[in-house]
């Protein structure tokens, strides 16, 4: 499996200036290449024809051979992604304003967009805690970086492929790709069903509730501050909104990491697998009241599912996604399914057999039961061949 390791660079002022000039130069070059590709090929840019068209110009502009190749690859990949989005309907139909706008002009790159380096123009000295990297001012050696011992060991043992130079909120980062062999998945003795929701982020079939009142208060406070800044309609308010949005996104990612880590740790310790509801397309299928729309869209539930999936894979824990239909309305004891079983958001009581309990825990139990059936079906032995008698 592939994971990324993010390390923080600690440049001197002179080194930071060289890195900034490098990012600016490669992104200016990317915009120039994108414009040439759009004029010559439209949205169908290919690497070899584009290389013949612009490679000599990039080298004349001061870019090294590898830097020029990576600029061309970035442009080609960007147009390939755009074609895929159009083909899959993510930008709307042929008459969509977003699609017409995307098809009418070349792709542009921010001046601080990330740039890719490979082993020819970036080398790691892990024992010394430094890297050597190509810049427009020449090869920069002895650029220090900071990371944890676990990250350093992962880089030393499994680093493979390219690394990205990123500037984020005034900090310089290197994001390296590591290819780690998949651990063997054990045979589960049972399953943990996980129900995701708006109020309770994750509730397991064991009754563990990962939410907390502090998190709900934080989300409401962020919504109030966001509304106050939006009402000001000034440039400084827009900058603060962007800064606050990044902070809120980091907080959500941190919380999703904590929740997923706890769920996977319990499953690994008890020898059980993890089952989640398949919530793909949930926002298109579910209709909520106006006051609930912001809460439905304010938390990255898909990210939480991805974190649980990759951490489970990293730990060798079996993982399944099951059908989410009626998991909050079905009685796990008698199977009776009725909207009236869920009297309120928090309480479940079966109208047929009287089973009662927290609604999210009941949903988690239903997810667990569906995982048991799915796993038994998948691992069912092949039927014996039919015998023909004369």
Anisotropy-based shape: globular
| Strand residues, percent | 15-25%
Radius of gyration: 26 Å
Largest sheet: 7 strands, antiparallel
> Helices and strands, in N-to-C order?
EHHHHEEEEHEEEEEHHEHHHEEEH
Unreliably modeled segments: none
Assign the structural class, choosing from mainly alpha, mainly beta, alpha/beta, alpha+beta, or little secondary structure: alpha+beta
Helical fraction: 40-55%
Q: What is the β-strand count?
A: 14
Number of helices: 11
Mean pLDDT: 88
What strand line-up does the widest sheet have?
Answer: 2-6-7-1-5-4-3
Distance between the termini: 53 Å
Give a short synopsis of this structure.
The protein is α+β, with helices and mostly antiparallel strands. 48% of the residues lie in helices and 20% in strands.
Can you give a write-up of this model?
This protein is α+β, with helices and mostly antiparallel strands. It is 48% helix and 20% strand. The chain is built from 11 helices and 14 strands. It has helices at residues 13-41, 47-60, 65-87, 97-103, 149-158, 213-232, 235-270, 282-285, 290-297, 301-315, 359-378, and strands spanning 2-10, 115-117, 122-125, 130-135, 138-146, 159-168, 171-179, 191-196, 202-204, 209-210, 273-278, 319-323, 347-349, 356-358. The protein has a 7-stranded antiparallel sheet. A 5-stranded mixed sheet has the order 10-9-8-11-12. A hairpin with a 2-residue loop joins strand 6 (159-168) and strand 7. 26% of the residues are buried.
């Amino acid at each position: 499996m592939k994971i990324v390791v993010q390390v923080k660079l600690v440049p001197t002022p002179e080194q930071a200036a060289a890195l900034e000039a490098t990012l600016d130069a490669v992104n200016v070059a990317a915009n120039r290449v994108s414009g040439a590709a759009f004029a010559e090929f439209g949205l169908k840019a290919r690497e070899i024809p584009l290389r013949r068209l612009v490679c000599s110009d990039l080298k004349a502009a001061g870019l090294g051979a590898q830097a020029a190749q990576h600029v061309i690859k970035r442009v080609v990949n960007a147009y390939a992604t755009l074609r895929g989005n159009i083909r899959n309907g993510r930008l709307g139909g042929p008459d969509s304003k977003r699609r017409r706008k995307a098809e009418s002009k070349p792709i542009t790159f921010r001046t601080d967009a990330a740039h890719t380096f490979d082993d020819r123009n970036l080398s790691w000295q892990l024992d010394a805690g430094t890297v050597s990297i190509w810049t427009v001012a020449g090869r920069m050696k002895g650029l220090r970086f900071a990371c944890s011992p676990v990250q350093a060991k992962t880089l030393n043992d499994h680093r493979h492929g390219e690394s990205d130079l990123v500037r984020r909120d005034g900090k310089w980062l290197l994001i390296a790709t590591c290819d780690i062999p998949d651990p063997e998945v054990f045979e589960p003795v049972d399953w943990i069903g996980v129900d995701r929701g708006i109020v309770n982020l994750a509730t397991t079939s064991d009754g563990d509730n990962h939410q907390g009142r502090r998190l709900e208060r934080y989300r409401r406070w962020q919504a109030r501050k966001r509304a106050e800044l939006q009402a000001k309609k000034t440039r400084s308010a827009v900058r603060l909104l962007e800064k606050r949005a990044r902070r809120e996104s980091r907080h959500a990612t941190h919380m999703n990491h904590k929740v997923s880590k706890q769920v996977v740790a319990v499953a690994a310790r008890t020898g059980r697998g993890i089952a989640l509801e398949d919530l793909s397309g949930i926002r298109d299928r579910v209709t909520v009241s106006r006051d609930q729309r912001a809460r439905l869209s304010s938390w990255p539930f898909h990210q939480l599912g991805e974190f649980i999936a990759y951490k489970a894979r990293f730990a060798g824990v079996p993982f399944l996604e099951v059908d989410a239909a009626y998991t909050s309305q079905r009685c796990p004891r008698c199977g009776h399914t009725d909207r009236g079983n869920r009297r309120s958001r928090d309480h479940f009581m079966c109208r047929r057999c009287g089973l009662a309990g927290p609604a999210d825990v009941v949903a988690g139990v239903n997810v667990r039961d569906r995982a048991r059936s799915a796993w038994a079906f998948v691992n069912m032995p092949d039927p014996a061949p039919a015998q023909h008698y004369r």
